[in-house]
Amino acid sequence: MAFCDDIILEDTTLRDGEQAPGMAFNRETKLKILDALIYCGVKWIEAGINAMGGSESNTLREMLERVQGQDIHLIAWNRGMKQDISDSLDLGFTHVHIGLPTSEIHLVNSIKKSKSWLIKQACDLVDYAKQRGAFVSISAEDVGRSDLNFVVDYAGEVYEAGANRLRLSDTVGLLTPQQYYNVVNTISSAIPIDTQCHTHNDFGYAVSNTIEGLHAGARYFHTTVNGIGERAGMPDMA
Known about the structure:
Layout: E1 8-11, H1 27-39, E2 44-48, H2 54-67, E3 73-79, H3 82-91, E4 95-99, H4 104-109, H5 115-131, E5 135-141, H6 148-161, E6 165-170, H7 177-190, E7 194-199, H8 206-215, E8 220-223
Helix pairs in contact: 1-2, 5-6, 6-7, 7-8
């Protein structure tokens, strides 16, 4: 595989970045970060989680109003629940991400669901969001501990349902660059869906994993300002 000829940086400082230990942004800070990202030329921005409600929803609404008429794509992160997606679309988002896991350990111990449930739920949610005219991103969370053959099947199902891209999330940051390359390459070679790198820095591989994922054919990749994010953080945008 080779680099995609249309690589897209998407910043998730306002979502994953805020999940760093001790990190919490108020409305003013979030809007300043949004403005700074736009000033730097970032056009794809994961803005936050509408399901948190309250001030978060109000701030997200203000963000949407602020970028109206600009070539800026704000993405709302949602749990794998129809109500989350419906509420984000009702708020005004035209780009939504659906967070769902593909690893057995997450399916069994976290959401207590089967692989067959996952595929049906994912396809139903993708179809619902597409019927409402949205750009739809969906996760293969904890892809590093997932059965890769199953992830390929999952990728094919969500692609057929209409998903615009598949986020390959090394949720616990355990993959090496060679392993992450293999994940992206295997999926990109089998299914014609755009893929997105989402890597964590637990073993210091976030940047190198992302570069290898892009070499393997991913089109989108995630960064945060100063590499903040869950636990050891994410690739630094700089």
